[in-house]
Description:
The chain is mainly alpha-helical. The chain has 7 helices and no strands. The two termini are 29 Å apart. This is DUF2150 domain-containing protein.
Amino acid sequence: MTEVEETYYTDERWQNWLSRVDEEDLDPESEESARLLFNMQDDAAIAVAKVLSAYKDGTLDQETALEELREIGEIVLSEVQFESEEKLMLVDGVQMSLRCVFAAGEEYVAGGPAPEGTIPEHVEAAVAAEDEEDLDTAFAHVVQAGTLVIEDNGELDVTVLEDIEYGLVSDWVSGLDSLQSALADPEVIEEDGEE
């Protein structure tokens, strides 16, 4: 296996997003602010999708793909320093959504798609586990759903989010939605001209 030619994601790229969040006057209710946060989330999901696609087509071996996914995860999930509590919470929401994306990617590369169950069944099981406050089980089910999203290039019906009470599972499923979109169309999101 040759050296990895492509850099899938960089700390500088993540810092650019953080700088934009820091500079902008974010209003969680505004569409513009929501779009910035979704773009930030989608951008990282695209990097994960590119690693997974390279793994699936044999460009990356298992070990290298896992290494790449972990590196992106370390960048994106590192602790963020903002003075604004609200901005910290908003970025934390993005990171929470992406946790499941990285875990699903690693699980898929390490062990393949979930051997049993469908995406809706795993999401329903995750919601039930969250209701019981069993967050480890809830996370495991969303990760399993994620491996099926990766395998099938996405059959996650996002209308499922309408029926989920806002909480960790809805955040995680939102991350899988970003991953599904990224797998279908892994185009880099331009940072308003700041590449």
